[in-house]
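RECORD TYPE: inverse folding
INPUT: structure tokens
STRUCTURE:
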């Protein structure tokens, strides 16, 4: 049997295949900083890690080698992963798929997300988080950009994973229906 500290260290590396650097997309002109949703990213190896799994950031600010902020324009969808451990192993594994909200829209408070965002998916526990990361990988393997997927799909994924069921695959038909629905409502 391994010591709890060694178990936590081993668990920390399980997510590395799912880790991606956020793409920073410079828009012209950039949205005003008051309209952006800012996310604090932290990298303290073996202790605390907060990172973006997918999403197109509009801006970023470096604070230090281990800390930076990335910003998302209103309407942008992104996945925010939080992981923390102590001497006894992993104490927090959380995945949120969020939509940056316009200041006039209701938002929920999420640690590290200022001023908050609309929650599309929220999962706790490494087993569920790992399964959701696998779903994200499958969406991307299907040829879709995860940030461009229908927001309702992420709600579906949460509902299914919370009760222990496998989510349905994201298909071209579902993606086309999402775009048609968006065209009709605009």
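DESIGNED SEQUENCE:
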């Amino acid at each position: 049997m391994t010591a709890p500290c060694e178990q936590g260290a081993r668990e920390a590396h399980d997510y590395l295949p799912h880790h991606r650097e956020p793409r920073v997309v410079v828009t012209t002109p950039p949205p005003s900083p008051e309209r952006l949703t800012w996310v604090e990213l932290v990298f303290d190896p073996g202790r605390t890690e907060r990172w973006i799994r997918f999403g197109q950031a509009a801006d970023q600010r470096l604070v230090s080698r281990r800390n930076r902020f990335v910003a998302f324009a209103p309407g942008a969808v992104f996945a925010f992963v939080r992981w923390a451990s102590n001497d006894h192993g992993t104490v927090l594994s959380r995945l949120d798929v969020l939509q940056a909200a316009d200041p006039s829209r209701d938002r929920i408070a999420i640690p590290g997300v200022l001023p908050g965002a609309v929650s599309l998916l929220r999962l706790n526990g490494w087993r569920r988080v790992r399964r959701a990361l696998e779903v994200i990988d499958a969406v991307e393997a299907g040829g879709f950009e995860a940030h461009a997927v229908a927001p309702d799909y992420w709600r579906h994924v949460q509902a299914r994973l919370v009760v222990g069921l496998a989510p349905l695959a994201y298909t071209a038909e579902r993606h086309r229906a999402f775009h048609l629905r968006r065209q009709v409502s605009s």
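NOTES: The CA atoms of residues 15 and 183 lie 37 Å apart.
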